Amino acid sequence: MSSPVQYELQDNIGVITVDNPPVNALSQAVRQGLLDAITQATRDESDAVVIFCAGRTFIAGADIKEFGKPFKAPGLPDLLNTIEACPKPVIAALHGTALGGGFETALAAHYRCALPSAKVGLPEVKLGLLPGAGGTQRTPRLAGVKASLDLFVSGAPIPAGQAQGIGLIDKIIDGDLLDGALAWAKALVSENAPIRRSSEQAVPDYDPSIFDEYRRTLAKRARGQMAPGHIVSAVEAAATLPFDEGLAVERRLFMECMQSPQSAGMRHIFFAERQASKVDGLSKATPRRPVDSVGVIGGGTMGGGIAMSFANAGIPVTMIEISDEALQRGLSIVERNYAGSVKRGKISEEKAAACRGLISGSTDYAALADVDLVIEAVFEDPDLKKKIFTQLDAVCKPGAILATNTSYQDVDAIAAVTARPEDVIGMHFFSPAHIMKLLEVVRGEKTADDVLATVMALAKKIRKVAVVSGVCYGFIGNRMLRPYGKTTQLLLLEGASPQQVDSAMENWGMAMGPLRVFDLAGLDIGYKAREALSNEQKGDPKTYRVPDLLVEAGRLGQKSGSGFYVYDENRKPTPDPVVDEMIQKAAEELGIERREISDDEIVDRLVSALVDEGRKILEEGIAQRSSDIDVVYIYGYGFPASRGGPMFYADQQ
Ligand code: T1G
């Protein structure tokens, strides 16, 4: 088995080339290869050393697949110290995304050059970790304390030019990277350039109060997470201790993070998200249909957000509404969303204008005659959806993919009204559709393989995390939300207040407690859905008694200014004693003895409600794998990534 690291002399420059597809991760073989190469370079007649990577990117980090497995030498920190100790100039040549241990390798080199398109970053915090190979000690010595803290705590990559601006990259190479790096290495040698070891540099001046200030902001922003706080402590060690002592602090803090359940959860989700995009039994060679134009039926909140998701990926969209007035309203929702994103600095005015320009509208279905994909996004009325699909079947060209954004309805029944059920699929977006990353792709009984493969690939293009679901009421996420909601109602009747239930779940890590979620979605939606059901179908009256009372009292949730909570003009929720009385009265009528309920019981019963339904979904084959269910709940329902998702969390218990 040849080493993934090659070494050769080119005009007296030792060139180390790492070639470990797909992202040159620092597997044990790569670490061993780097150690062998730098050892050889130290001894041979080379004047300088260039570290370069083949393929699409410089080293993108430690090999996450090795985490949690027995340690195999050489360890990365020691390897990087050996590289830094080299008595000859070592130049790292960066392209693609030099991330984590990859950028730490570059930091251990004496000089760093990069293509203008390269990005660098230390995203370990997204895995519940911190840079554990000297990054927290070398970066502050080069870029200062503040820039380092921002880089580590955000985990966001920065462009090469910006990295150069803060002293992390020395030279931008235009043209061929390796040629440029070799020429620069020769120039450094001829100038007798010093061996610049960042570990020997002093940390530039900083305001000592920055550490406590950072910890205060983290208390809110990264509530309950270990890694961000440990990052601040590691940087504080860099600023206050000699390098070797700081390195030891970094190692200790890194190991604490590595061994934490939080990191296990976040590493699980890293792979689960990538696994979700794979469809078991669907060969990678499955052909994909071109999707160069899209139609969206419905210009409501969902339709507008869906249209933006495609426009943001450069795909032109035709929005269809029933009247000019409705169409204008739909386009103005899009307009308002883009203006908001520009105002918040999310995108530039130019980008917003370019995307907006890709969205046109019509009230005539004939405008959809040539589109490659149509997404129906009208409200949840099965008959209306079937009427629309009958029209689409008549208007759209052969081979066009017909998708429904339905949250619950039977995709097979919708497909059955068309003469082309193999072209019908579900694409369930989550509101707000231009922001939420989750996309449930509902595979109908007759959905063709190439249609499914096309939509899964398209999801990546519009930067969504796609999870395949079979056809059932509520698919994966909303189906699990039903027992979650029913258990919430039982907890209220049995003695917990809405604010206790919500704060118990939010302190545990949920982005939003269940009662706030239901107020946000609108209590009238469930009320209307129940009206269409028999008492038998409705199930235990305890599970909907209070929401019915609220809706009948005109309390529909945020949209009406009150639901389980009262909302001010900024939609800030305040508990309402009227609701407490309603709950107590309903409990009496239903003969329920109220009692003290602990936060632990609330969390345990609500998470178990999700997990039990998730197990049924797996048994029925609605979801391909349990990690897919985790991805749905983390990307669509605010489940904490640090817990790994409901199914992973249950396995951990
Ligand atoms: N280790 C192992 N496999 C990895 C990997 C990694 N670091 N990064 C990506 N892969 C796999 C991924 O699972 C997928 O595999 C394939 O590569 C393509 O990835 C000591 C401890 C680099 C921006 O966190 O952000 O260094 O599904 O689909 O969208 O301080 O991958 O094809 O089988 O994501 O083009 C720090 C994680 C690690 C970077 C490319 N580094 N990776 O995105 O492709 S911790 C990271 C990414 C560390 C040190 C610490 C992205 C990417 P498969 P992909 P992409």
Taking the alpha carbons of the first and last residues, their distance comes to 40 Å
Instruction: Enumerate the strands of the largest sheet in spatial order, edge to edge or round the barrel.
Output: 12-11-10-13-14-15-16-17
List the uncertain runs: none
Reading off the top of the CATH hierarchy, the class of the largest domain is best stated as: Alpha Beta
Kindly report the name of the CATH homologous superfamily of the largest domain.
2-enoyl-CoA Hydratase, Chain A, domain 1
Largest sheet, in brief, is:
8 strands, mixed
Distinct bound molecules: (2S,3S)-3-hydroxy-2-methylbutanoyl-COA
CATH architecture of the largest domain: Alpha-Beta Complex
Strand content: 5-15%
Provide the domain count: 3
The tally of helices reads 27
CATH topology type of the largest domain: 2-enoyl-CoA Hydratase, Chain A, domain 1
How would you classify the helix and strand content by structural class? alpha/beta
Number of strands: 19
User: What characteristic shape results from the CA principal axes?
Assistant: globular
Percent of residues in helices comes to 40-55%
- What is the radius of gyration computed over CA atoms, rounded to a whole number of angstroms? 28 Å
Mean pLDDT: 95
